[in-house]
Design brief:
This protein has one domain. It is built from 2 helices and 3 strands. The protein starts with a strand and ends in a 12-residue tail after the last helix. 17% of the residues lie in helices and 14% in strands.
């Protein structure tokens, strides 16, 4: 079960480190990040692998959401795509 979600800045200086321990990855073909993004491009949704209970220093300045909370946050037209997680 995926249960730890974060909305991070797309320009975070630690983005590479965050992507290294999150489910999202960078495409080797075009360099795009497999993350749901806010339409203005300034924020993106990342989530951690199931069972990851580590304290990641790179995420300390961000709010951690659970599944129900993140569904409420993303339930508007400001975000691209659909959240299909259970």
């Amino acid at each position: 079960m995926i249960n730890r979600f974060y909305i991070i800045d797309s320009t975070d200086p630690n983005l590479d480190a965050i992507l290294a321990f999150s489910v999202q990855k960078v495409s080797p073909i075009d360099g795009s990040i497999s993350a749901r993004k806010r339409k203005d491009g300034e924020k993106m949704l990342i989530y951690l692998y199931p069972g990851d209970t580590s304290t990641h220093d790179e995420l300390l300045s961000y709010v951690e959401y659970n599944l129900e909370q993140i569904k409420l946050v993303l339930d508007n037209d400001d975000w691209t795509g659909n959240l299909v997680l259970e």
